[in-house]
Design a protein that fits this description.
Blueprint: E1 6-8, E2 14-16, E3 25-30, H1 37-49, E4 54-58, E5 67-70, H2 76-82, E6 92-94, E7 110-115, E8 131-132, H3 135-141, H4 148-158
Parallel strand pairs: 3-4, 3-7, 5-6
Antiparallel strand pairs: 1-2, 2-4, 5-7, 6-8
């Protein structure tokens, strides 16, 4: 049996070791409903198999998550691998320039799973508001025939200000 690269750090946050070759990292927040701890562990195992580093946290809000975050430098291939792993209905996407203090990534290389559209709602600026996303728009982003350029344009289109809730 292969040795796992998953471990608990000193704050009891489940993480994988950083590996050469992976451009992105994934932050996963598990909840009591929707994205439960066992479901989150299944995602972690798949990410470990794909050599994609991750961090796993328990979200403060136990309700089912409804959002994701995709950094602006995540490729269509990376999104194509990860979006189908998400076990809840994605209704919102945070803008790719979402502030780092609330879960974004200034380097653009993070995918956030288990986010909630109403989390930090009273603290964030209007620019950080999640955008409502239709399922067909989300899945059109990861179509196999889309180039990186078309994927990035699709992310920008979804993140337009007129899609704010």
């Amino acid at each position: 049996m292969a040795e796992s690269n998953i471990y608990l750090d000193n704050r009891n946050i489940k993480m994988s070791t950083i590996r050469d070759g992976s451009r992105i990292k994934v932050d996963i927040y598990w909840h009591t409903l929707g994205l439960t701890y066992p479901k989150a562990l299944t995602i972690c195992e798949e990410l470990d198999r794909l050599f994609i580093p991750f961090r796993l946290f328990q979200h403060l809000n136990p309700a089912c998550p409804d959002s994701i975050f995709i950094g602006y430098l995540v490729t269509v291939e990376e999104a194509r691998l990860l979006i189908p792993l998400i076990p809840y209905r994605i209704e919102y996407i945070f803008p790719s320039n979402y502030s780092e203090i609330h879960g974004g990534d200034r380097y653009g290389l993070t995918i956030g799973i288990g986010y909630m559209s109403n989390h930090y709602q009273c603290y964030r600026s209007w620019m950080d508001e999640p955008r409502k996303i239709k399922q067909e728009d989300l899945y059109s982003l990861i179509q196999s025939n889309w180039s990186m350029r078309k994927f990035q344009q699709g992310l920008r289109d979804i993140s337009r200000l007129d899609n704010i809730v």
